[in-house]
Amino acid sequence: MTGSWEARYAAEFFGTLILVLLGNGAVANAFLKSTTGNDDPGLANGGWLLVASGYGLGVMLPAMMFGSISGNHLNPAITIGQATLGLFPWSHVAQY
């Protein structure tokens, strides 16, 4: 990990933002009425493939963009687990 703690916090914020935007956006597109993912019979109503692709891209893109800056925790369980093992300082867990 490189950069100041402020840069790491910003990278985690934007990484989580991308994950939520793409993942939850795919769910909304697949299951809300009158959306392109739900109305087009050729797409088989979006479904699990659209949701899996949205969340897959939502994890992959921030990992590629911000992984070298912040370690790409994105999931609070990773941060807490690393802090428990002594690999991450407890003083920064809440900010991550």
UniProtKB/TrEMBL annotation:
For the keyword Nucleus, the answer is no
Q: Give the UniProt entry's GO cellular component terms.
A: plasma membrane
Query: Where is it located?
Result: Membrane
Q: Which key words are in the record?
A: Membrane, Transmembrane, Transmembrane helix, Transport
Note the topology in the membrane.
Multi-pass membrane protein
Superkingdom is Bacteria
GO terms for MF: glycerol channel activity
- Quote the PANTHER family the UniProt record gives: AQUAPORIN OR AQUAGLYCEROPORIN RELATED, AQUAPORIN-9
Family named by the database record: Belongs to the MIP/aquaporin (TC 1.A.8) family.
This protein is called what? Glycerol uptake facilitator protein
